[in-house]
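A quick aside before the break. I want you to see a complete sequence-to-structure record at least once, exactly as it would be stored in a machine-readable document. Don't worry about memorizing anything.
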Amino acid sequence: MTVSRIEQQTEQALSDRVQKIRVSHFIAPDGTRITLAHLPPRGLKRWLPHHKAIVVAAVRHGLLAFSEACERYGLSPEEYLSWQRAFDAERPLTATTLKDHRY
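That is the input. The structure line, written in tokens, reads:
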């Protein structure tokens, strides 16, 4: 079994669990209350990083299930998981990481 397939199964299992615990909103890092109305529109042609990030966050927080996000936005599971990996790879700069990058 490939890593991608394992990731898909893991994400689907988590999504199925979260689907039972549906939330009406979640709070973004800036304090904004995010609901389904705040998500990108269906049929969006140009996906910017913040569009992808909010969809990944919506799935993680239980606003959308993994399968719903894929269906709503016409994504393959692999495409969604690539967004998730990119989102996970982002590491905000902090005082510690700034110190690490000094010359």
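Two observations worth writing down. The longest helix spans residues 3-20. The chain has one domain: 3-100. We'll return to this after the break.
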